Amino acid sequence: MPSLVLAHTRYLMLEQIRVPISILASAFFPAVSLLAFVVPFAGGDPQAATTATASLMFFGAMSGALIGLAISVAQDREQPWNPYLRTLPAGPFPRFAGRILTTVAVMLVSVIPVLLLAAFFTEATITPVRLLLGLMALVVGGIPFMLMGLLIGFLMSSKGAIAVSQIMFFPLAVIGGLLLPPAVLPGFIETVSPFTPARGAAELLWAATAGLRPNPVALVMLAVWTVALALAAGWAYRRDEGRRFS
């Protein structure tokens, strides 16, 4: 089984490399945002630069997790190769695991431009241990968005998945405080923000990279969203399986 997972991961990674638009999209906007907004306005403040860098890192990773996974799963379902794979004795797990590992790899690659720009153009500071913790927090915080991407991908066509995932992505990022510090958000958004998964992931990442005390409500809601989306994604998969193969 591990060899099958690795084979699927290798195949899916080659797909990403041959058509790298999702990786470029996940990395480009956060990097440009850092140069346009963080460097001139918060680049000289070590803590502000560090937290802003962490936020933009997750912004790019969230794009790869939510939009990338939703579109790829929906497109897979429309290919004749996918039903054949589901009939094989190994079952769906190897390809499913390969898809998740590929998405995690895309998430981690997407943060590299932001990290490099922050290192060269801002006063952001971080130790190797905190960087490792930050990357771990980024992956953990990305789990609900991967599950959200699976949910959308199993429920919708590829065209629908493109539209819905993009419509959901930006408001979640804004309300979650990834583009603006929570302190400057309008009052009603600041009230709602801790109840969104993006804010929980951001709080986890800020705690890991900058040592800030996380908002406990945001962390609890991150766990709630993860469980709820896991159940919903599992239901969507069984629904798709029942409709197409029963």
TrEMBL record:
<feature type="transmembrane region" description="Helical">
    <location>
        <begin position="54"/>
        <end position="75"/>
    </location>
</feature>
<dbReference type="InterPro" id="IPR051784">
    <property type="entry name" value="Nod_factor_ABC_transporter"/>
</dbReference>
<dbReference type="Pfam" id="PF01061">
    <property type="entry name" value="ABC2_membrane"/>
</dbReference>
<feature type="domain" description="ABC-2 type transporter transmembrane">
    <location>
        <begin position="8"/>
        <end position="198"/>
    </location>
</feature>
<keyword id="KW-1133">Transmembrane helix</keyword>
<dbReference type="InterPro" id="IPR013525">
    <property type="entry name" value="ABC2_TM"/>
</dbReference>
<keyword id="KW-0812">Transmembrane</keyword>
<protein>
    <submittedName>
        <fullName>ABC transporter permease</fullName>
    </submittedName>
</protein>
<feature type="transmembrane region" description="Helical">
    <location>
        <begin position="21"/>
        <end position="42"/>
    </location>
</feature>
<keyword id="KW-0472">Membrane</keyword>
<feature type="transmembrane region" description="Helical">
    <location>
        <begin position="133"/>
        <end position="155"/>
    </location>
</feature>
<feature type="transmembrane region" description="Helical">
    <location>
        <begin position="167"/>
        <end position="189"/>
    </location>
</feature>
<feature type="transmembrane region" description="Helical">
    <location>
        <begin position="96"/>
        <end position="121"/>
    </location>
</feature>
<keyword id="KW-0046">Antibiotic resistance</keyword>
<dbReference type="InterPro" id="IPR000412">
    <property type="entry name" value="ABC_2_transport"/>
</dbReference>
<feature type="transmembrane region" description="Helical">
    <location>
        <begin position="217"/>
        <end position="237"/>
    </location>
</feature>
